[in-house]
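2024-03-11 09:14:02 DEBUG pipeline.ingest accepted 1 chain
2024-03-11 09:14:02 DEBUG pipeline.ingest length=195
2024-03-11 09:14:03 DEBUG pipeline.predict start
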Amino acid sequence: MENVDPESELRILSQRLKALRDSHEWTLEELAERTQLSKPYLSRLEAGERQPSIAALLSIAQTYQVGVASLFQEGEQTPQVVVRGGQTPLKPGNGLFHAGLSARTGEFNLRPIRVVVPLQREGGDLYQHDGEEWLYVIRGRLQLILGRDQHQLGEGDAAHFDARIPHRLVAEGDTDAELLLVATSSPRPLLESYL
């Protein structure tokens, strides 16, 4: 079992917190407002003078949209990932089949998802969530219900919209529709709110 040096971990954490805030160009006041933590508390964390609570770490990680573990990683983090074909099988969810195309979504602002819309999709609910979505039809025909509007999309067509507008995907024609969907991150997990 590896020994953990608390002072070293606290130093790494304080440097990472300062680097994250600087990269977002936020003042301590702005960060305090976003995390609901006090400015003096955040200042002491960045100075390495205070050990954070788990709740504080969760709030900070969610605000920066990173995993809690990444707060303890030394140096400038450049998250990247390669997902090979067939590495992420399709899973059912709310009448659709989906596969995440990035294994490290907590560290990115975009959520790429491969989606198959079955021709006989059950239900009729519209979905909405924070952020925006961009989709590209790979195969088949798709009806995009967006608020009161309906858009017919074919292979090679794309759509970009505010995901707060109630929306639904419906396959049309005689085959399932397959698409690539990219959405911005939101405070609650995208797959729970959309799929």
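2024-03-11 09:14:41 DEBUG pipeline.report The longest strand covers residues 110-117.
2024-03-11 09:14:41 DEBUG pipeline.predict end
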